[in-house]
Amino acid sequence: MRLIDSYTETSEVVMPDETNNLGRALGGWVLHRMDLGGVVAARRFAQSQVVTASIDRVDFHAPIDLGDIVVLTAYVYDVGETSMQVRVDVTAERPSEGVERDTASSHLTFVAIDDAERVQSVPELTVETAEERRLREAARNGEPAAPTQ
């Protein structure tokens, strides 16, 4: 399975119920979205159900304000026999002001499971193109990277 086949991007607007008393997105809300984005990337790659095994430290780089558009990207960049490493990045956009900023990032590990909820093998990761190599290296170096294609 190719790295790019697991790539996912989702966007949504931060609403009042998702903010704290300062009008900024709750960290737990952001973390929940990161886990869901990672699940989508891992399921696409494994072509099966997955469970979250671990979340590497989460770095919050900048606040996300009420009304911002949150863009989450996730992709599998490394695999084991039954597990997948997923890079997740979150940016915030404010189109009316032409502002876009990196806001959070993490590496999550997912394990593939079968219908009986037993651990199962995942496909080999194929990194064929220069673009896929760039994404993989960015993930390994802890840098955000969206596809350029």
What would a concise description of this structure say?
Keywords: Hydrolase. The protein has 149 residues and is of the alpha+beta class.
Major beta sheet, specifics? Answer: 6 strands, antiparallel
Could you report the average pLDDT, rounded to the nearest whole number?
A: 96
Q: Which topology does CATH recognise? A: Thiol Ester Dehydrase, Chain A
- The share of residues in helices is 10-25%
Total number of helices: 2
Taken together, the total number of domains comes to 1
From the alpha carbons, calculate the radius of gyration and give it in angstroms: 16 Å
Query: Would you count the extended β strands for me?
Result: 6
What fraction strand?
35-45%
Distance between the termini: 18 Å
- Low-confidence segments, given as residue ranges, are none
The CATH class is Alpha Beta
Going by CATH, what is the homologous superfamily? Hotdog Thioesterase
Q: Which structural class should the secondary elements be placed in?
A: alpha+beta
What is the overall shape?
globular
SSE pattern, N- to C-terminal: EHEEEEEH
Describe the structure.
A hairpin with a 4-residue loop joins strand 5 (83-94) and strand 6. The chain is globular. It is of the alpha+beta class and 149 residues long. The chain contains two helices and six strands, in the order E-H-E-E-E-E-E-H. The chain has helices at 27-46, 130-140, and strands spanning 8-13, 49-55, 59-60, 69-79, 83-94, 99-113. The chain has a single domain, classed as Hotdog Thioesterase (Thiol Ester Dehydrase, Chain A). Strands 1, 2, 3, 4, 5 and 6 form a six-stranded antiparallel beta sheet that branches.
